[in-house]
Structure formats: C-alpha cells, structure tokens
UniProtKB/TrEMBL annotation, chain A:
Residues 757-872 form the GAE domain. GO terms for cellular component: AP-1 adaptor complex. Belongs to the adaptor complexes large subunit family. InterPro entries: Adaptor_Complx_Large_Subunit, AP1_complex_gsu, ARM-like, ARM-type_fold, Clathrin/coatomer_adapt-like_N, Clathrin_a/b/g-adaptin_app_Ig, Clathrin_app_Ig-like_sf, GAE_dom. Subunit of clathrin-associated adaptor protein complex 1 that plays a role in protein sorting at the trans-Golgi network and early endosomes (TGN/EE). The AP complexes mediate both the recruitment of clathrin to membranes and the recognition of sorting signals within the cytosolic tails of transmembrane cargo molecules. This is AP-1 complex subunit gamma. GO terms for biological process: intracellular protein transport; vesicle-mediated transport. SMART domains: Alpha_adaptinC2.
Amino acid sequence: MNPFSSGTRLRDMIRAIRSCKTAAEERAVVRKECAAIRAAISENDQDYRHRNLAKLMFIHMLGYPTHFGQMECLKLIASSGFPEKRIGYLGLMLLLDERQEVLMLVTNSLKQDLNHSNQYIIGLALCALGNICSAEMARDLAPEVERLLQFRDPNIRKKAALCSIRIIKKVPDLAENFINTSASLLREKHHGVLITGVQLCTDLCKVSSEALEYFREKCTESLVKTLRDMANSPYAPEYDVAGITDPFLHIRLLKLLRILGHGDDDASDCMNDILAQVATKIESNKNAGNAILYECVGTIMSIEDNGGLRVLAINILGRFLSNRDNNIRYVALNMLMRAMAVDAPAVQRHRATILECVKDSDASIRKKALDLVYLLVSESNVKPLTKELIEYLEASDQEFKGVLTAKICSLVEKFAPEKIWYIDQMLKVLSEAGNFVKDEVWHALIVVISNASDLHGYSVRALYRTFQTSAEQESLVRVAVWCIGEYGDMLVNNVGMLDIEEPITVTESDAVDAVEVAIKHHASDLTTKAMVLIALLKLSSRFPSCSERIKDIILQNKRSFVLELQQRSIEFNCILQKHQNIRSALVERMPVLDEATFSGRRAGSLPTSVSISTGAARNLPNGIAKPAAAPVADLLDLSSDDAPAPSSSGGDFLQDLLGVDLSPVSAPSTSQPPKGGTDVLLDLLSIGTSPPEQSNSSASDILCSIQDNNAPLASLNDLTSLSPLSANATSPASPAPVMDLLDGFGPNLQKNEENGPDYPSLVAYESSSLRMTFNFSKQPGNPQTTLIQATFTNLSPNVYNDFLFQAAVPKFLQLHLDPACSNTLPANRSISQSMKLTNSQHGKKSLVMRTRIAYKINDNDVLEEGQVNNFPGGL
Amino acid sequence: MIHFVLLISRQGKVRLTKWYSPYSQKERTKVIRELSGLILTRGPKLCNFVEWRGLRVVYKRYASLYFCMCIDEDDNELEILEIIHHYVEVLDRYFGSVCELDLIYNFHKAYFILDELLLAGELQESGKKTVARLVSAQDSLVETAKEQASSISNIIAQATK
C-alpha cells in the first residue's frame, strides 16, 4: 500500500485544518492532503477512494481547487456498493457542474443505476440527474425518468417528478411526454408525491401551452378539491406547521391554481370559493400562515377579476403593511407592486403607510417602498408625494440619499405640472443632497431655467438665496454660479419679480462675493472652478464697478496646474484688460438651450452617465473631497460622448454649460475627431451676432496689442496648449468675429505651428481592439520631467472590465503612475491615465517604456503587451 | 426555484453549498464573497430578504450559522423561511440538537439530508419523519456494507496468515 494513503481519517484532517492558526498553515495542511490524495489517485487505490473523495469535498468547500478528483467520482459511481455510490454521487454534484465535459461520461452509469434493483441507488441517480444534468443527458435519460414516475415506491416517484422538472426546463420539447403521467400524480395521497407532482404540473404549464390547456380542463376541479380537503383537514402531526397542515402543499396548490386561473373565466370561477375560504380562515399570527395568505393574495391578483376577492386581498395586504414584522411588511410591499398592475386605486389607498415604509430603518424595506412610491406617483399626487420625499431626504442616511435623490429627480422631471414648481423642487433637492445628484440632472435644470425666460430672475434669486445656506452642495453651486453669471443683472435689480417672491437686496459686490465663495469652497473641483471663471467673465461686463475685483479673482488661477484653468485665466484677463470694447458682445447671455437636443443627447448618453456616477459614488462616499482626477474623468467622458455623435455646434451645449473644456487630453488626442465649438472662446464668440464693423475694429485692436500679448503667451507656448484653438481658428466655418479675434493671436500661433507642437502626441500602442495614445507636456522649469497623459480607446464592441495599465522603464527613468480615471472601458470609449516620467539622463538618452495592458472581456482575461521606443526626441 | 443554498458561519466560513443552477467555480467564490458581505453585516431586527443581482436571497440565522437560499423574484419568500426551518428541524432531529460542529465534521450527512429535502431546486418532502426515515435507511445500508467488508477482510486476513 502506498505510504501516503494510509494517512489521516476524514475527521482527523478536518481537525488538523481547524486547528490551523494562520491561512498559511491551513494551506500547508491542505497541500499535504492533496498530495496524498493525488498519489492515491495515480496508484488507483481502491480502499480509500471514498474517504479521499470525502476529504476532497471538504477541501473544495474551503475554496481550494479539486478538479483532479473529478474522475474519482465517476469511478466511485461505477463501483457496485451503495456506500461508494452514495459518496460518489455527492462528489459529482459538489465538484462538477453541468457545463463540464466529464459529466457526459457518467451518463451510462446513471442509466444503469436508474434501472437498479435497489431503490436507494435509483434515488441517488435521480437526485444527481435532477441537480446537475445537462440538456444532452436530459434527452438521453428522459425515458427512464418517465418510467420511474410510476415506480411502486412513492419516494422514487417524487424524486422522478422533480427530476422531470429539470428535464423539461433543459429540453422543453420533451414536455408533452410528461403531461399524462404528471396528471396522475395529482391524484396521489402521499404528500411528497403530491407536492412534487403539483410542482411538475406548474412547470409543465410554464413551458407548454398544451399542458396548460390540458390541466386547466382536466385538473382544475380536482385541485380545488385537494386544496379544500387540505384546508379542512384535521390535525396531522407529521405535516403540521404552527397549526396548519402542510403549508408547503397549500402554497404549491395555490401557485398552480394561479396559472390555471389566469386568463380563464371558468377556471377562475371554479376556484373563487376556496380562495375566499383560505384568505379568511388561515391564521395570520405565524409565518407559515402568512406565507399561505401571501400566496393566496398573489393568486387572487392573477386570476380573472372578482371584485369581492380583490378587496379581500388588498385588505390582507393592508394588514400586512401595518404588521410589526419586517418580513411581512416587505412581502406586502412586494405584492402591492404587482397589484399596481391590476388595481392601482386600491393600492393608492395605502399611500400613507407606504410612505412611512420609505423611512424604515431596514434598507431592503426602504428600497422596496421607494420603488412602489415611484409607481404610485401620477400627475394628480405628484406634489404631496414629492414634498414628503424631499422632507425625508433631510433625515435619510447617506447611502440611501443617492437612490432617493435619483428617484425624486426622475419624478419631478416626469410629472412637473409647471416649470416654477420644477425649479423649486430641484432647488430643494440640490440644496439637500446636491452632492448626490447626477450630472445630467443639473444639466437638465439649467436647460429648463434657460428656456423659462419669465423665470430667469426668479431662478437666479432663488438660487442665490439657497446658495447662502447650502454652499457645500456641489451641483447646487454649479447651477447657481452658472445662473449668476448669466442673469447676474436680474439678481441685483430684482428684474421680473414674481408676486410670491420676497424682495431681496443684493448688491453687485454681493453677487461677486457669492461666486468667490464658490471658487474658494470648491477649490478642488475643477468643473466648478471652470464655471466660476466663466461666470466671473460674464459678471465683469454686467457689473463694470466690480471689474477690478473680478480681474483679481481670475488672476488667482494664472498659476493653476490645470492647463485649461491657467489658459482661461490668462485669456480672460486679456479680455478684461485690453478688450473692453468687445467684452460686452463676448459675454452676452447664452442663447436659449435647445431642450429637444438635450433630451436626445441625454437619452443617447444615459448608460455612460449612469456608469460614471456610480463609479464616482463608489470612490467618493461623501462626494465632497473629490480627488482632482475625478472631474477630469467626468469631463472626458462627456466629451467622448461627442465622438460617436456628429458634433454639430448646437448639440455641444453640454460643453457650453461647462464652459471650459477641461480636456487637454482629449482635445489633441488622435482618437477623437476634432470637435467644433467646444472651446469656450469659440462658444462665447459663436453667438456670432455682432455686426461686422465692430469685429473689424476689434480685430485691429487686437492686432495692435500683439506685442503686449507676447508675455503671457510665451508661457503658453511651452505648453502648446493652443493647438486645439488653432485648429478651430483655421476652420473656415467659424464666423467672422472668431477669425478676427484669433487672428490677433496669429503670429504666436504661427510660431507654434512652425516649430511644430513641441511634442506631438503619439500612438504608443495599437491593436485591433485597443489604442493607447500618449500626450506629452512639460512642467515649466523642470525639463527632466515629462507629464504623459495616456488615453486608452476601446476599438471593439465589447466592454473591458478590470482594465489595468502597467508600465516598466529602465533605471535612468523614474515613473510615477496615477490611477486611471476608470477601470471599466465601454465599447468605443476612452479612459485616461496620467503618469510622470523623470529622465535622469535628460538630453542624453531618450525615453523608452515597456507596457502591459490587462483587462477582461466577459470575464475572460486579455493581456496586451508592447514596447514604446518612438518617443519624440528631447523628452 | 431555489438557485443555491449556502450555509455560512458568522465568521464568513462556508459550511455547505449546494448549487441548483449552473455557476462556475469562479462565480461560486464570487457569489459567496458578495453575499457574506451583504448578509453578515445586516442587523438582527431587519427583514430576512436581500435583493441581489435581480434575484432574492432569503436568509435566517440559527445560532452561529446563516442559512441562505437564493430564489427568483416571484417566489414566496415567507415559504422559503419555512423551508429553511424545516431543514433545520430535520438536522436537529438527526444530530440531536444540532450545532455547527456537527455540520463541520459530518458535512456529508448535512448534504445527504438536504438531498432528501430539496431536488432540482424544489421542495421534495414536507414530512420530517419521512426524511429522517429515508436518511437512516441509507445510513444503515452503509453500515451493513461496512460490516460485510470488514468481515470479509477478516476472513481473507485469516486465510492468508
């Protein structure tokens, strides 16, 4: 006998594993056991085969690989003794599943065992077949199972019945073979057979309409009678649960009746009485009774209409709703949701109670209740319900706020009777949970405000007021900043005052104060910062008196590390200082945003936005301390939305809203077509209504000031950030004023282009499925360090999950890799990741990098590797 | 139908798994991890249902063990609680006031009992006595086989002396 297999008993192994103090110890014990078992397997050891398999099962439960034991199961099953077979079948069910090829090898043994003289061996085979058989096996062994449905021992009949369920689910064509025999099971007295028989009939009805018709015609009455006998049966100790005889059978009978009664008046009539009896007689003080009542209500709701019964059912649910047991309330909400389809008014009667459940301490109940409230809302009751939900928003805990906010926003949008109400509600939501609101929600709010010309003044004043109390809510701040920028004059002068408003006095400097607070409060949030800059530029023209102060605030961003902010800050400063005469035309109010385009875009981009916001939410549980990467990522995703859609300038107002395009990555990247009109200057300019003569004068004006411009632009040259601008500038489609203004910068741009952009972007890796593009920039005063923005574009129709980019560099380089903006890469989209490379041999050696990209498509690992040695010189 | 049954200890150790729907090994590990995170953290007074991947998991805690069953959305959650209790009662009868250790050392017995209770993800038998009788009948078949084997090996041993 081999020296290993004499080893430990099962019990000893379990004890040894349990006494392990560390995971490493446990692994060692398991490794040793596995080695012994493998040795025994290779020696074809007979004596301890079943003990070894039992050990393997335990090891399997601990999560270790045990595939090498699969054949042992088959050998045990093929042996003649009952103990071996018993453990063999157990191992088969535990270690294998229907998708493994090995399973096919067992078909023959199964067939023999299904014909065995020992009924327990037949039972084992049926059990294995019912739990893991594949479609092929089902087809091969169906005749055996069919025969066993009439076996003399009831315990085999019931196993065969459940086994048949698996067979007809795998191969629905076989259903008709089972109809007659299963109908005969319904006449049995043995509870096990009856329960499984009823279940088989239910599943037959689901896969075959022929079966449904047959049972409806032949069996409805007898089933009703069985249920009645059951309901009236005297105490039966074997089947009694809390004073009710066999609730399991009750429930299965009710389930089958539901299917038979659905859509058929006669069958429904036939079961009315017994349903009423069950609904009224069953005690509801124990879980078993409630389970039956719950099933009964479901049946009443599904069968053809009977007014009285429905009332009875809804009343039961009402009782359930006020039950103290959370389980009962949960199922009540669940059933009310189904009842909405058949009897909405009856459900509406329980609105108050349901609303209470939204505030429950149990997350499962809250979520169910909220789903139900969402269904309950209609035009007529949207106001009170929204009021309740918003009030609750204050009290709800953080993790629930996200779901709740999304639902409220969706309701308000869907059912808002008038715009002013919509704006009011949204303000409440934003001030309460602005950090939980998805981007498209506040975008939508801005679009609505922009379209309600009579409410501009009202909105900006309301926002200003709310802003004073809730300056920490990011999305509120954004909307407020946008509106103050656009409609600042209306804020100060109380223009378009509504009767319901309380007058407020806001001075020009108060308004600027508010914007300044916003930029201070949300210093880490690039989107808000960018919006603030735009707002300030606009205010500088609306409030000439504050012009100097505004200039100061704008200039604070002159040294921002974020390219876009720095660039805008310098550009705006130029406008403020040198181009007073065109400023007012530049910063005219935005044209009304087109609602239709917005909703169209929104529908198109919805999946992405959803995924973004959930991703962001996961990273940032409170949404306040946003790492700098997140807003950039958001923006990038927004702009990559543009890539598939032909970017008409009108459709780009999402970018317009954001004002500045914070994507130094995406703009020059080769993966996306150059976008027209996303740049803020162009946006402002593309108003394009200013008369030509004015533009002429401004052009000359700017031309005069070229020399002056050199200073700030010199630094910009280093950054080569004007290249997207230049692309736009030379586009012939741009309106005249654009040309003019940009011509002013012309010589500098020219210089830029002559030198070539300092470091052209590089397609660092490309395969049929993936493209990686590098964009380079240098930090001023630090020539050794190169900032690389890597953009990964998915070129396939698949979603890449668990996306991971890794890079290796030689010793003279130092690499610092920031996390990617997302680890999921949807089809035809891009994600970005930035890294910093420091070249200690700057000027002597050029950059080189080895890359490795790993991701998953449908859970399959993909690995792409490459080497980048064509970095532009001089990095 | 019941998609799977899990027994997880309060520390997150798996004590029994039974899969009636096909899940690959990888998925199984993931499911167990996800669900233990979801269920073990829930407070004692909350309801026994959690929604998970479009399915519903019904769980109930008995001493240190969580019994979890995953079902379809339209199944009867309250009934599943009864089925779990039914299983616990049968175990209790079989082991004589069952505890977690019984299920660790005799995990195969727990599986044998479950196989007499559920099949193909559906309830097989509502009578507790019937289940107990069927399991003990099979146990005694094993015992007889063992005795026979040992007596035969004795005979062989003596004959070959």
